[in-house]
Amino acid sequence: MRWYIIRTLMHKELLRHLSNRGGLALAILLIGMAAMLAAFGRSPTAQASLGMLRGAHHCYVDYWDDSPWVEYLKQNVPESQRASIHFRHARQQFEEGEVIKYDPGVGAIQMRPAERPGGPLVIMLWYLGDDPSQMTTYETWFWQTSRNYFRSRVESGLAKLGPASRSDAALPPMNPDQVWEWQESHERFLQQVAAVKSKLPAETAQEIQIPELEIERKALTGTATGTRTTISAALVLFALFFTCVYMLPSLACEERENGVLLAQALSPASPSEIVTAKLLFYPTIGIVFAALLGGLARPGVLLQPFFWLTLVVLGFSSLGIGMTISCAAKTQRAASMTALCYLLVISLCILVCQHINFWFLPQFMVEYHGPRMLNAAMTNQVTGREWTELGMTAGLSVFWNAGATICFRRFGWQ
Fold first, then answer.
1. Which residues constitute the domain of residue 339?
2. Nearest CA among 204, 282, 197 for reference residue 242
3. Same domain assignment for residues 364 and 284
4. What is the model's pTM?
5. Of 336, 375, 294, 302, which is closest to residue 20 (Cα–Cα)?
6. Which of 220, 255, 287 is the last residue of a domain?
7. 316: how many CB neighbours lie within 10 A of its CB?
8. pLDDT per residue as tens digits for the range 62-98
9. Which DSSP symbol is given to 414?
């Protein structure tokens, strides 16, 4: 490796970027967007306009004990919500005393046991951010299905009576539009059940047991999406991808079409030095540009070591992807279309996998880990899970760059 050759090749790349007016215009627009986000992102109007990005696309029903109630809920999930409502046995899924964590975009309904013998069961409703209405769809299903189950318990007891006694002790009809107002509704329902049981024989009344419920609503900390943090992370990620996944293949294929790449291969510069120059230039430019956007949008993030590690890993991962695309595409137009199609396909794949709750495949995608790590860094909520994702992304980076280097050395310059 000869440094003066690598330095010359890097200077050549810099001059080509400075002469690319389209790239410079987009960079200026991104910087302006980051500055506007920093200036206006905290206003109520801006927060309201970003509300469309909020919402729980999945809901976990975590229960601590098996019961007919839980089985009834499992058997009565609407077809339209089967892909978004998931049941988990908390005692089997988590260790005793372990804090349950939920991914961004996920709400939860916890069916906890009574805190004291003979006390009410505890129902905890966990929603995203500061908007409990995001869980309305899941709450409505949960409460309405639970009410149907409790009514079926009463009706099974009434079925043992004669027609005359059954008509005297019948429950009032249920108003489904008010079921989600559960705290007061359940108290009224218990009063109705008590009135029915007072008219039944002691043995039959003893068989009808409707539990008291203690209901709590709490916000999931650190999981709100669709806010200033999400837009900031998107800007940072786009800066890396624009530099390494879009610009690199486009300019590399332009060099191939014009014969510049072949001329470099015939010059004293070796293939390793050509690759090294790109390995040093593009991630560096991408990381600096991404850090500039992140610093404008959220200045405090520049003091987070995890943020810089994430930028380095994502930068080199994007470089490997861009180099692979530049080897596969033969023309500048093909390189641009391939990069665009790659991003669209990966985004669609991640979206579909999230909606069908298939988490295995996205683990092998850099684009899945990047936003999660950036969000954690920008909110200063880095845990062991984010460090694990950083390690996985580093492994993917090695894979992409090793493959890109092999491809480029064999036929990428042709």
1. 3-48+225-412
2. 282
3. yes
4. 0.59
5. 336
6. 220
7. 25
8. 999 999 999 999 999 988 888 888 999 998 888 887 8
9. -
